[in-house]
Amino acid sequence: MRHFVRSRTMLGVATLSVAALALAGCAAADDAGDTAADVVADTDTAMAAGCEAFADYMGNEGETVEIYTTIIEPESTLFQESFVEFEDCTGITIEWNGDQAFEEQIAVRVAGGTAPDLAIFPQPGLLKSFAADMVPASAAVASSVDSNYTADWKNYGTVDGTFYAAPLGANVKSFVWYSPKVFAENGWAIPTTWGDMLTLSDEIAASDFAGNAWCAGIESGAATGWAATDWMEDLMLRFQDAATYDSWVDHSMPFNDPKVAQVIAEAGKILKNADYVGNVSAIATTSFSAGGAGVVDGSCAMHRQASFLGGILVGDYGATVVSPEDTDVESGISTFYFPGVSADQTPALGGGEFVGAFSDAPAVAAVQHYLTTPEWNNKKAALGGWFSANLGLDTANVADPVNAVAVEILQNATTFRFDASDVMPGEVGAGSFWTEMTAWIAEDKADQAVLDAIEATWPAS
Fold first, then answer.
1. Within 10 A of 134 (CB to CB), how many other CB atoms are there?
2. What is the per-residue pLDDT for 370?
3. Among 32-46, 260-274, 358-372, which stretch is predicted with the lowest mean pLDDT?
4. Contact 128/121 with Cβ under 8 angstroms?
5. How, if at all, do strands 64-69 and 93-98 pair?
6. Tell me: the pLDDT tens digits for 161-189?
7. Sign of the alpha-carbon torsion through 334, 338, 343, 347
């Protein structure tokens, strides 16, 4: 395991310098006959100055709280920076422990009696398997989450009616990537309904545009197929209601139910339509990242993928992330919301992390609480490359225009649901769902045959 030493900002250095001067002053005061009580009183007064925002977390000076997570450098550096003022004011030291083997090692640590104080779980399913070992969230944490998040987010940190884990970062998958320049040059309007999007696809396919209406790729090594499952999940939220989505995820509704058949048929209207995508079977051997490159070079008009794609297209394909109004930027890319059946239906598919506690120490509860506040969420977002579903997050602190749209989607979503394949049993979510959707594309396997095959792999309860 790797432990990261937190780096201090200039604020931290200044605070340390002031502390050193204060200690020197105290030493002089001792020589003059001041009592120890006088020194403590002076220190308390100095500590409170400028730290009023952290009053709720005081009284835990000298405590250390370990946060165990999958998040490592360079991303971890910004997390550590976001804690500096909190640490300086409260006297709590946050030990950030990033480990890429988190998913397997968290079980080892819990079983061995060395559970971390706080753990950041990247999937609700993994979180639920540790509910018996975790400490229920404090009343302060629960109240903060009630105030600062929609109920859907709290539900994902709740197990059997008990709330354990507070939301942290988020990602949004309900995006269509496109080039504002290409759309403007061709006079195409952003669709606001699923029907409008199919009509636009027909228009592009029939025009003299040199590329395809859509590009796609689902190859991802051993995880090939996950990108196709995202289409199913987004469309399940649009053609069925939230309760049906939940029934699909927990298998109270069979995977081969007619409602699921309706959804895969809708997905096929784009992914298996050669007029829209060109060579359908090639999608199975095109990487998910290369699948989106067409919106950069103009070989396709649209690509459905999560908010994280922007960084890949910028780093690997020379794209520039722009706002929809920036219609003169060559290789400029932006996003629009993957529309619902009607314009007022705005569900969001995404993912996120959840912070659960294995200790009931007051300092641990204080850190868990702080991470739920608009104050910390805005501080962290302003450092760049990150956003959350916190309702108090100001998009002015989210510099990336796509991430800013993602925040707006989360804050205005009529329904939010977590990526289904991340919540389903591993045999299905990271197994047959991936492989059968790949066969659906690569082999033109029939809709019902795909659903029947996935249903057959669902583990017995």
1. 22
2. 98
3. 32-46
4. no
5. parallel
6. 999 999 999 989 999 999 999 999 999 99
7. negative
Q: d(Cα 181, Cα 324) in Å, to the nearest integer?
A: 9
Amino acid identity at 43: T
Whole-angstrom distance, CA of residue 307 vs CA of residue 172: 6
Q: Which residue's entry shows tokens 């997050």?
A: 393
Q: Characterize 166-191 residue by residue with b for buried, 16 or more Cβ atoms within 10 angstroms of its Cβ, and e for exposed.
A: bbbbbbbbbbbbbbbbbbeeeebebb
Is the pTM of the predicted complex or chain greater than 0.85?
A: no
List the structure tokens of 164.
């354990």
DSSP 8-class letter at 153: H
- φ/ψ (deg, to 5) at 322: -130, 170
Strand 332-337: give its sheet, edge to edge: 212-214, 300-304, 175-178, 332-337, 320-321
Q: Give the chain's length.
A: 461
Distance CA 124, CA 423 (A): 7
Work out the mean pLDDT of the chain and round it to a whole number: 89
Distance CA 145, CA 372 (A): 6
Q: Find residue 352's DSSP bridge partners.
A: 170
Strands 300-304 and 175-178: antiparallel
Report the alpha-carbon distance of residue 174 to residue 368 in Å, rounded.
Answer: 29
Contact by Cβ (8 Å): 443, 450: no
One-letter identity of residue 182 = V
**Start-to-end CA span in the chain (Å):** 35
Angle at the Cα of 227 from the Cα atoms of 197 and 278, rounded to 5 degrees:
55
* CA distance linking residue 218 with residue 305, whole number of Å: 11
Closest C-alpha among 432, 385, 415 to residue 237: 415
**What is the reported pLDDT for 23?**
33
Q: Which two tokens stand for residue 75?
A: 């991303």
The rounded distance, in Å, linking the Cα atoms of 434 and 73 is 30
